[in-house]
Amino acid sequence: MGPSSNRPVDWEQLVTENENRLYRTALAILGCPQEAEDAVQDAFVCYLEKAPEELRNPAAWLTRVLVNGCKSRLRLAWRRVGPLPDDLPAPEGEERRELEEIFSLPPADRAVIHLFYYEGCSTEEIANLTGQRPGAVRTRLSRARGKLRKLLEESQKGEL
Question: Which end of the chain, C or N, has fewer beta carbons within 10 A?
Fold first, then answer.
């Protein structure tokens, strides 16, 4: 089953407008560029195969499919997140250190940090994307901030 001619969204425009945002989200969750690329591709394939015809917000639908796909990938027994990938386009110095600390957080914490701070999602939007209650998202976000703060403080002490 291919893209429907009745689909109100231009396929090229949909990909162009969403691929970078989806990739950044997948990379924040998975920590591996190749897996992030695969997850984004899977989300687009799922859109072609399963998206409802009268979809109001294709970007939100794609993000939800992507987040769920990333969660499924994380459940695979062979999967492990290593250090920050060398080919990740990131600045050096302080920002690189902060990214290293973010990548050392558990995947669920990385996901809420990324969606909240880098994608600008509200806790309600994150709840819809991840299938959690807004209160649970706020709790996870608060705990993730605390973990990140502690990691950054320990890292700064180690540099002194």
Answer: C
